[in-house]
Amino acid sequence: MHxxxxxxxxxxxxxxxxxMRTLRYMVEAMSMRAGLNTIQxxxxxxxxxELFANISKHGYHGRExxxxxxxxxxxxxxxxxxxxxxxxxxxxxxxxxxEVDDVQPGGIGLRLIQAIMDEIHHSTxxxxxxxxxxxxxxxxxxxxx
Length: 145
Known about the structure:
The protein is α+β, with helices and mostly antiparallel strands. It is 31% helix and 28% strand. It has helices spanning 20-34, 38-59, 109-116, and strands at residues 7-14, 66-74, 77-84, 119-125, 128-136. Strands 1-2-3-5-4 form a five-stranded antiparallel beta sheet, covered by helices on one side. The radius of gyration is 15 Å and the shape is globular. 23% of the residues are buried.
């Protein structure tokens, strides 16, 4: 039995910029390496974009701030990690999102992320927040090249 290869990308982004192109390239590269199809890749793009937008809008309140992003593929899981320096989220209620049947603009980003990803982890730090999104892959999905 051989250990699965580790693939990793990372970058530091400004929350006030239009960084979707950079995020898109990273997600597409990692998804391709994971053997995901176009629909699965687009779902990963939605989850990553939603989290970046939530950090920008709700964490930094539209002001500029640093977001560190790291993506890795290992042991049949695709993992996206975000570190921000926005005020820590103290109220866990803020992380639930609105009910899907409460039809109005905004507020369902976390529900979308939850529907796409297998695991979502959030932890507060003294100077920000740490987020981890994980998608489990089937044994045959991960590329060996």
